[in-house]
Amino acid sequence: MVNVKGGTRPPWVGLGAAVWLQIASGNAYNFPLYSHSLKSVLGFNQQQLTMLGVANDIGENVGLIPGLVCNKFPPWVVLLIGSFSCFFGYGVLWLSLSQTVQNLPYWMLWIALCVATNSSAWFSTTVLVTNMRNFPLSRGTVAGILKGYGGLSAAVYTEVYSALLRNSSSKLLLFLALGIPALSLLMMYFIRPCTPSLGEDSSESYHFLFVQVASIVLGVYVLTTTILEDVFSLNVVVSYTLLIIMVVLLMAPLAIPVKMTFYPSNRGKLGVSDVSVQDNSSAENSEPLLTPLSSSANLGSFQEGDEISEVDMLLAEGEGAVKKKRRPRRGEDFKFTEAMVKADFWLLFLVYFFGVGSGVTVLNNLAQIGIAQGLHDTKILLSLFSFCNFVGRLGGGVISEYFVRLKAVPRTVWMTCTQVVMIIAYLLFASAFNGTLYAATALLGVCYGVQFTTMVPTASELFGLKHFGIIFNFMSLGNPLGAYLFSGLLAGYLYDNEAAKQHSATCLGPDCFRVTFLILAGVCGLGTVLSIVLTMRIRPVYQMLYAGGSFRLPQSSSH
After folding, report:
1. Which residue from 359, 347, 343, 348 is spatially nearest to 479, judged by alpha carbons?
2. Where in this chain does the record put each NFD4 C-terminal domain (predicted)?
3. SS3 323
4. Which residues contact 238 (CB under 8 A, 6 or more apart)?
5. Residue 34 and residue 27: Cα distance in Å, rounded?
6. H helices then E strands: how many in the chain?
């Protein structure tokens, strides 16, 4: 028996809870806030620090195991594993940085950081897959909202770091080790599969608009308060008041289910509280995150169950009981192994790799980039990147959803456009002209965010939702791979060489990262070319999926 929550209200409760967990999943963005303390207290050089940044990105983005686990277990199990990962990983880092336990080996801290930030993969996989399945006709919008809040998390943590923790790196690590698991335990009950709405509902678009506006207000608020706290010396009472207002804004999406409770629609009254669905293909009584549900109509248990032997299937085909299996077409549900043999799968992976891999290099070294160009306090720079990253994620989802429904424009068009702008941003970084640092950071933040919210729905539209968890997480490997190649091997090496020329541990001047930025500009040039090729290849798929201005579920293959 698979218990699926019915009614129109539970999906919105889940989305409101998912917002908090997406903020929690952004814990990896805190690395620039405590990286300088790791360097000074523990005596690391820049290359060692950069490799810790690689560990940070590997943990955050290697989600193949969460992608597999979410097919077998209910969401609360996946979230519980992420909570333990967060507690133990950040706990070890806190013990080392606070000198509670001294002389921990570098390799242990590297692994601890991987484990800590891997909680992001467990959290984000759960909320993203569950909510995209709960709102299957609004994939771009849902991905934009959730990824937008995830991008905004760095600014939220910066506010907590400044107002509540008073700029203490050790207190921040303790907060991450205890606070995030507590939040996950509090919210896990509300993240659950619900009966999806497959019809057009005008109120749904207004609800999504409300959440988007609420997220924009939150983004502007945290950026403004961060600047105010940097410019003025605010007392404790004012700082705590600003923090409480931020928490209230984070609760805004929950206003939708509250409104639906007091003012239920006629459509909502038709729903039932719980729906029991008998799954004939499985004898398990667990509540899987990804039920064996096709994106379209299926042909019964022969086609849904993965446990039927090949011999039984061949006999059934010979007797005419079922149609012979065919390979899925783009737009249908793919198994992971079937998707991997498709050229579009690898084109999408490479385009995403070049975009986010180059962007995360700047993010990991943002504090050092600011210091090299004469900026002593890099909190505003980090908040600016975070806010623009949020704008790119939210805007990328909204704009791509609008044009895909209006003219069936493939979402990858926006990956192409933003990678062109990223080339300009890297050239601005390399020039190091006065006033270009903030402009380049803002441009890069927006474009970096767009890469996320176009890849996520694109992967689901090309290869289906049935195995979306593992497909999405495989695509996400482009982030740590890019961090290792472009940040760990390239940027860190060039930085230390330039610092050695200056006979200092800290490199100053535009030459510290200039060559790195020029190489990253070339990388995005290659990504632009591949993105154009991918867009041309998948345009017919989008014309089929969005003919008539709305998403149409394709005829699924027999699996």
Report:
1. 359
2. 342-542
3. coil
4. none
5. 12
6. 24, 2
